[in-house]
């Protein structure tokens, strides 16, 4: 009996140490929760945070696992094995770059690749900052004890040097832009540094994340155009913040019991059973802001078709959401990458459609002149 129980405990411990957090959130499972996670009799871990354990990004995780062993802790520290956070950081940049393209033209591929590189680096830097802030706490809890800093795989000094390296490379990316964009990008660093602390002092850390993660909606436009157009950039930035409030509130519902136990705050704990009403309001605000962007920039049918598809996706997402099932919350959260891609596709096709409309207008003018 002792052998069977010991085997079960080892399995539970191994399962717990495989959990890696998305993005820069410093959420922690308590030891009490870990103890509750054992089913009576068989010693197996409960569902709990199952989706994060059972559904890693396999290609990304395989790349990290195939890297030289000394590099693996650093790659995991910057969450390269879980790229969903990088996607959610990158997609608002693509919207802005796409909207800034000339009518009838594709987005600037150089800018898209540059911002993609920057998204990987800045998300990694944000995760490193988060783990440096939380390292003492992470050592005391089961789910986060295996993080590279907390586990002792990387020292505080090494993580600080690694952070400096990431920020230096990110600065190199930033210096490829115009002076206006360099200043604008540098201004976001304060948000990157302070966001991890927000869950300790406010029930709206998701709002702080939205302000941080959607900075690219401003930066992408200025990188192409030389400065921000408030009529386009501000509603685009606002729509991104609303989007973040949607997906990160859903994500936070996975952790709400643990957050309540350890004293962390989130919109999930604030909204509770009224979550769907709040998410519906954020959806209306997001779609309204994106529609305003379209009107201000003269977008066309494909763009508004994409917005309709996004509205349907979000409506289904919210209607079918079960906030008491972590697995469902994880599925809904990760599906937001599809939403971001639909918006980007709508922007690109809508911009290409402008050329067709321009050609038609020119033909009408020529016909009138001939007549």
Give the ordered list of helices and strands: HHHHHHHHHHHHHHHHHHHH
The 3D shape can be described as globular
- Tally of strands: 0
**Radius of gyration (Å):** 23 Å
Strand residues, percent: under 5%
Give the mean pLDDT: 83
What structural category characterises the helix and strand content? mainly alpha
Number of helices: 20
* Separation of the first and last Cα atoms: 97 Å
| Poorly predicted spans | 1-54
Helix content: over 70%
Summarize the biggest pleated sheet.
Answer: none
Features:
371 residues, single chain, mainly alpha, disordered N terminus
Describe the structure in your own words.
By secondary structure, the chain is mostly helical. Helices cover 72% and strands 0% of the residues. It has 20 helices and no strands. It has helices at 2-17, 31-36, 50-54, 58-66, 72-77, 84-99, 109-138, 156-174, 179-186, 189-194, 198-201, 205-213, 216-225, 230-252, 256-262, 267-271, 275-297, 301-320, 326-334, 336-370. Helix 6 runs antiparallel to helix 7, helix 14 packs antiparallel against helix 17 (275-297) and helix 17 runs antiparallel to helix 18. The longest helix is centred in the C-terminal third of the chain and has 35 residues, at 336-370. The protein is globular.
């Amino acid at each position: 009996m002792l052998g069977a129980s010991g085997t079960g405990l080892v399995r539970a411990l191994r399962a717990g140490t495989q959990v890696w957090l998305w993005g820069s959130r410093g959420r922690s499972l308590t030891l009490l929760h870990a103890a509750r996670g054992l089913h009576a009799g068989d010693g197996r871990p409960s569902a709990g945070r199952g989706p994060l354990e059972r559904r890693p990004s396999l290609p990304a995780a395989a790349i990290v696992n195939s890297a030289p062993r000394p590099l693996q802790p650093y790659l995991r520290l910057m969450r390269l094995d879980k790229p969903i956070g990088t996607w959610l950081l990158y997609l608002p940049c693509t919207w802005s770059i796409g909207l800034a393209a000339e009518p009838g033209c594709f987005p600037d591929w150089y800018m898209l690749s540059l911002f993609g590189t920057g998204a990987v680096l800045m998300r990694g830097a944000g995760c490193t900052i988060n783990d440096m802030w939380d390292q003492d706490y992470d050592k005391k809890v089961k789910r986060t004890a295996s993080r590279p800093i907390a586990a002792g795989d990387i020292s505080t000094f090494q993580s600080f040097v690694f952070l400096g390296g990431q920020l230096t490379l990110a600065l190199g990316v930033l210096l490829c832009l115009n002076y206006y964009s360099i200043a604008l990008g540098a201004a976001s660093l304060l948000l990157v540094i302070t966001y991890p602390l927000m869950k300790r002092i406010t029930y709206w850390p998701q709002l702080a994340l939205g302000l941080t993660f959607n900075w690219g909606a401003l930066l992408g436009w200025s990188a192409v155009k030389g400065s921000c157009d408030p009529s386009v950039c501000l509603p685009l930035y606002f729509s991104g913040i609303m989007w973040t409030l949607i997906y990160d509130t859903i994500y936070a519902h996975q952790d709400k019991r643990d957050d309540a136990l350890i004293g962390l705050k989130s919109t999930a704990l604030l909204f509770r059973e009224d979550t769907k009403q709040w998410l519906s309001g954020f959806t209306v605000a997001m779609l309204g802001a994106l529609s305003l962007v379209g009107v201000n920039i003269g977008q066309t049918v494909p763009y508004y078709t994409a917005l309709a598809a996004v509205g349907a996706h979000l409506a289904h997402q919210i209607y079918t959401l079960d906030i008491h099932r972590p697995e469902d919350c994880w599925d809904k959260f990760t599906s937001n990458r599809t939403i971001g891609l639909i918006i980007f596709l709508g922007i690109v096709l809508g911009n290409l459609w402008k050329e067709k409309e321009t050609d038609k207008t020119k033909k009408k003018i020529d016909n009138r002149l001939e007549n």
